[in-house]
Specification:
It comes from Isoptericola halotolerans. The protein has eleven helices and seven strands. With 341 residues, it is an alpha/beta fold.
Length: 341
């Protein structure tokens, strides 16, 4: 995806355009969806796929605009940013994120017939300490799902490190710049002296409090045959033959990158670690996959394992081996619930 424009362009041009588009779409969306959706659905077979897709696109634009207007209101209430450093300002944005995600997934359940089930051991308590969450990455929207569950089940404010291209979405752009999160520029476009992913993760982790959670996706992207093979080859080039063999044996996940995880624990050595697995969306890789599956009629199952800080190694080599061991557990968990992808 193309690199995002400068911040002033995103704030003064892109964000207002989304709001204007939403205002135009509100009175016309239903009629457009009914007329165009009905016509195209007659041409393209399926269970109202076109109608559902048009509706979700329109809903997302309006949802994005509502979030932008709410954050504009919070900015004005803070004295146009003069009081933005106060605790109430961050809490208000966490509550806003929780409410907007609840609204989004209510619509997803209704339009796409998608259910989210949490398969976790009862009675597990999150310690009063910073939390580092490492999750597999598979399927569209899984980061939204994970953050929604973190907000809803643990009450933790999410801290996320994302690719800078996600700043094209105005609501995500504004919200995460007001929470302890960051956008990272790929090395191919990074300016000299600009912080990379590892430095950024360590900086954010060092500032974590006991009511926040840093979310990482060590695989770095959805699993594909090319990425999986390349990751295994890279391990062998580094001389990690044993880890490469483990990666070859894991059919449902890719070998994780350990750098971000190691940086997070360097920044927050007292953090507990929550390992998250999920299944239900891994076969949705391309736009064609998503189109064929509409409506999805799926259940997304999430599972998790909590490890106290004392149970995680302290040196980088041992941490990488420990992370691979956790990924073997994730692979087995997925294998029990779905065929190998």
């Amino acid at each position: 995806m193309m690199a995002p424009p400068p911040r002033w362009v995103r704030r003064l041009v892109v964000a207002p355009l989304v709001v204007v588009l939403a205002l135009v779409m509100v009175p016309t969306t239903l009629m457009l969806a009914l007329v165009v959706g009905a016509a195209l659905t007659w041409v393209l077979p399926g269970r109202l796929r076109t109608l559902r897709l048009l509706w979700m696109i329109a809903f997302y634009v309006v949802w994005d605009a509502l979030a932008l207007l709410a954050m504009l209101g919070l900015w004005i209430a803070s004295g146009c940013g003069l009081l933005a450093g106060r605790p109430w300002y961050r809490r208000a944005h966490v509550r806003l994120a929780r409410g907007m995600l609840a609204l989004f997934f209510w619509q997803v359940r209704w339009t796409l017939r998608l259910r989210i089930v949490v398969d976790a051991a009862p009675g597990v308590e999150i310690p009063d300490a910073p939390l580092v969450v490492v999750s597999r990455h598979a399927g569209p929207g899984d980061s939204f799902i994970l953050i929604d569950r973190l907000l809803g089940l643990t009450g933790r404010a999410p801290a996320v490190v994302l690719k800078d291209t996600l700043q094209w979405d105005p609501a995500i752009d504004v919200l995460l710049h007001r929470l302890p999160s960051a956008f990272v520029t790929p090395s191919s476009r990074r300016r000299e002296g600009q912080a990379g992913a590892r430095e950024t993760v360590e900086r954010i982790a060092a500032g974590l409090t006991s009511d926040e959670a840093l979310v990482l996706f060590p695989e770095g992207g959805n699993i594909t045959a090319r990425r999986r093979t390349g990751r295994i080859a890279a391990l062998r080039e580094r001389g990690h033959e044993e880890l490469a063999r483990q990666a070859e044996a894991m059919g449902n996940v890719m070998a994780p990158h350990a750098g971000g995880f190691q940086a997070a624990l360097d920044g927050a050595p007292d953090a507990a670690v929550l390992v998250v697995a999920h299944t239900g969306l891994e076969r949705l890789v391309t736009v064609g996959d998503i189109w064929r599956e509409l409506p999805m009629d799926k259940s997304i199952v999430l599972g998790g394992w909590l490890h106290p800080a004392s149970g995680v190694p302290r040196d980088d080599v041992a941490r990488e081996a420990w992370l691979f061991e956790q990924w073997r557990v994730v692979d087995a968990w997925i294998g029990e619930r779905t065929p190998t992808v």
